[in-house]
Amino acid sequence: MPYSDLPPQAFWRSCRETADFRLDALYAPRVRLTPGMRLATAGSCFAQNIATHVRASSLHLVEAEPAPALMPPEVARRYGYGLFSARYGNVYTARQLRQLLEDAEDAALHEEAFWTRPDGRWIDALRPNVEPEGFASLEEACAFRRDHLRRVRAMFDAMDVFVFTLGLTECWADRATGRVFPVAPGVLGGSYDPARHVFVNQGIAEVHEDLTEAIARMRRWAPGLKVLLTVSPVPLTATASGQHVLTATTLSKSVLRAVAGDLAARDPDIDYVPSYEIITGTPFRSRFYNDNLRTVTAEGVQTVMSVFFGAHPALGGVPRPDNLHALPAARLDEDGGDICEEALLDAYAEPRP
Q1: Alpha-carbon distance 89 to 333, whole Å?
Q2: What average pLDDT does the segment 126-155 reach?
Q3: Helix H segments across 107-197?
Q4: In a domain, 19, yes or no
Q5: Residue 134: left (phi > 0), alpha (psi -120 to 50), or beta?
Q6: pTM of the prediction?
C-alpha cells in the first residue's frame, strides 16, 4: 500500500494527537543555513519580524541603508531604517519587487511615482512611509530615490540568501505605465484619478511571471543566490475586488502560496518557509492572532521563528531580539508592531449601525 510507510506527519490524525501538531516536522529545509551567511530581506509587513530575528542570530543581516549612527532606534524605525535590508518599505506584491529591481538596475525614476500631500510636501509613492515628514521639493525626493536605488543594487553584491515574504495580489497601478504602488493613491499622498489609476488583482500566471523574472534578475547580479519564500499570514485590511474581504483574502493567499510552492518545487535553491501555515492553520484555532483577527501576536512570531531556526541547528538556537516596536499607533498596524501602509485602509471602513 502506498500509504503504509509514510511518517506520522503525513497523517492528520497523528499530527492532531500531539500538542504542537508536530511543528518540528513542518519545515524540512533544502537550503541549509550556516553561521555567517549573508541574508537580505524584503516583503510585506510581517517580513519585518524576519529582519529583527536574523539581526539577533548568528546569520549576517545585509543592511544596505543603515540608520545614522546617533539616531535613536525608535526614530530610525519610524523613518524606515532596519525594517528590511534596504529602506524600500513594504514590498507587498511580486510586481512591486520586479519593478524595484528593474529600477535599481537602470537607476530609473518615474514621474508618476512622486506625489504631493495636502501640506505641499512631496513623497516617494513607491515607499511612502519612509519619510514621515515628506520632502521639501521634488528635487529632494528624486535625490533620495536615486541614492536608495544605488544601495538596493549594491545590496545584491553582498548577499548569499534573499528572503521574500509575499503579501498581496491586489494593488493599484498607473494606467499609462503599469507602475504599481504599495498604497492606493490618495491614502498617504497624491489623489485618486480613475482615468489615471487602475485596480489590479494579479492571478497565478502574473505572480509567477513577476517572481520568476525577479529571481532571474537577482541571480544575474548574484550567481548562486538562494531564495527563501514565505507568505504573509496577515489578512487583507480591505479589498477593492468587489468580493467579501474573507473570500478575497483566501484567493490572494492561495495564489501566493501556489506560486511559492511551485517555484520551490522546481528549483533546489528556492525554499518555502511555512509561516503562513503555522499562523493560519486550524490546529492552532487562531491563537496566534490578536483580537482583531488580523495582526499576529508576539507568541505567533516567536513560534514561526522557533520552527525556522530550529530547522537549522547549525545556527545555534532561536534568537531572542530586543523589542523595538515602540512607535505611535498611527504608524503601526493595529495591535502589532509592524509599520504597514495597507492597515491605514481600515480608516475607510464604515461603522456598523
Answers
A1: 14
A2: 97
A3: 138-155
A4: no
A5: left
A6: 0.92
